[in-house]
Structure formats: structure tokens, C-alpha cells
Known about the structure:
The protein is α/β, with parallel strands linked by helices. It has 2 domains: 3-170 and 206-231, NAD(P)-binding Rossmann-like Domain (Rossmann fold, 3-Layer(aba) Sandwich), CATH 3.40.50.720; 173-205 and 234-303, UDP-galactose 4-epimerase, domain 1, CATH 3.90.25. It is 38% helix and 15% strand. It has 9 helices and 11 strands. The chain has helices spanning 12-23, 58-64, 88-108, 140-159, 181-190, 209-222, 239-250, 276-282, 290-303, and strands at 3-7, 27-32, 48-52, 71-74, 113-118, 163-168, 170-172, 203-204, 206-208, 228-231, 237-238. The strands form 3 sheets. Strands 3-2-1-4-5-6-10 form a 7-stranded parallel sheet, sandwiched between helices. It has a two-stranded parallel ribbon with strand order 7-9. Strands 8-11 form a two-stranded antiparallel ribbon. Strand 4, helix 3 and strand 5 (113-118) form a beta-alpha-beta unit. Helix 1 (12-23) crosses helix 6, helix 3 (88-108) packs parallel to helix 4 (140-159) and helix 7 (239-250) crosses helix 9 (290-303). The longest helix has 21 residues, at 88-108.
Amino acid sequence: MEAVVITGGDGFIGSHLVRYFAECGLEVYALTIPNSPVVGRIKDIPHVTVIQRELKEAEALLEELPQKPVAFVHLAWSGVSPESRNSVDLQIGNIELCLQAVHLAAQLKAQRFILPGSTMEYSYCGQAINERACPSPQNAYGAAKISARYLCEAKCEELRVPYIYAVITGIYAADRRDNNVIYYTISELLQGRKPSLTALEQLWDYVYIDDVTRAFFLIVTKGKAGAFYSIGHGDNWPLVNYIRKIRDIIDPALPLGIGEIPYKDDRLPSSCVDMTSLEKDTSFVPQVPFEVGIKKVIKSVGETM
């Protein structure tokens, strides 16, 4: 049985990957911080070994982790919440953590080092995100992701570790609550209130977590060294389209306050993806249409009210 190492295995994305990878027949080694408050998400899953250590504890980790894993997926990242994304000190620490992960992957002779990126690196690039898109970060979080991408690429080349970078667009899921326009709109409409919104002309892409886990599994098992992949659904619609679909599912008669709030400035961010490389190399095709996935989210939000 092939093995895979995942840092941040108890996080939102990580916990989904851990469970799915194990179900698909991989032996999963999930790294978490010591005394993680959310490690229960991944405990007692068959074919999953949970290791609660800091990455700097390399000597101990080398004894506990397998040699030549099919991939080393580095998901661990601090400061992802909106209130922490502009903390420069916090984001700089993440860069050092990424480089520590590369060193560990090299010592394990990992067949691939996979570093996930964010569309926040490309907020104002003006095109669907692919390997040719010009980085244009919106905050310190995006800037740190860009730095980590290129520094890890250089370190992987130095240590001869095959390197893959994978940018993920906006993820939504029934077991996730985000401070974004989708969850705000659902909450307001379910409570019979009209959501106050901007004109929502930004082009955006949303992907359900089940498609994200499948995409990562294909990258882990089929991804090519040196590749840049964009993971999403590929709709690339104006935000208003998503909001109207949400309203129509809940109740087509409910009003929407589209245009009630002015934009902060004239620069509209976008979050669109070009999945050509991912589809070509791994045969990935998203399977969860927005209308299907968002019904699960609406149901989940309604049950918690």
C-alpha cells in the first residue's frame, strides 16, 4: 500500500483529504500540531496514522514517517481567517514552515511535494488563473503564499524533490461556515431577511469540497513534476449568478438587496480558474454542480438555526 504524508491533516481541507485518501487505498500519515483541538476529526480512521508533532522535530518525524511516500502534501498554514490575513509576522512564519516541510520531504525521499496555493494570490490578475497568470495579491496572506510558492520551488529543485503547485478556488461545503457572501446570503434568507449586497459583478468560481478531495487524489497519484494546477469547478460566473441561484433554491419570491452597498474601490477582485492542465494531466472533471452542492449547504445551515 502506497503512503502519503499530509501536514495540517486535522484542518478543514486536510481532514477531508485524510479520510478520502484512506478510503481510496492510501496509507495516510497525518501531521498535526501537539494538542490540536480538532484532531478528533481524523482519529480512529482505518489506514490513518496521526502524528502530533511540530515540523521542526525532524529527527523524531523521520522515525515515524514512511520512506518514499507517493506524495508529501503541505497544508499546514496559520492565519487563514479574515482577521489574520494581514498579519505580516504570522504570514512570514508560514513561509519558514513551508521550507521545513520541503526539507522533511527530501529526507523522506518523497515522490512529490505538493503545495496548495490560493486565488488570493491572483486577486487582480485579470484572467483565469493558470501557470501564466501574473500574481497580484490582495493581502499579506496572498503575498506570503506567492513567496512560499517560489521559495519552495527553488528549494525543491536544490534538494531534487519533484514539486507541484496547486491553486484552489473558493471552497464551500456542508460542514463549513465561512465569513463570505454565500454563507451570509443563505443565513439572511433563511431568517426571512433581505441581504444587503454590492452589485456582485466580480467573476468567481466555487468548488464543492468533494471535488477538491478528488482533484488532490489525482494530483497525488498522477500529477507531473513542475506542474501548476488550478482546482475549481470552472463556472467562472459573476457573483450575482451564485446569489440568485441560492435565492431561487430557498424561495424565488424573496428579495435581494443587490447594489445596495457600494464597492470599496474601483478595483474588483476576481477568482477564476483555468483547469486545462489539471484535466490534461489527471483527467479530472468536477462532478458536483453548484446547484447540487449548495442545497447541502442550505440544508446544513438551516439545521443549525
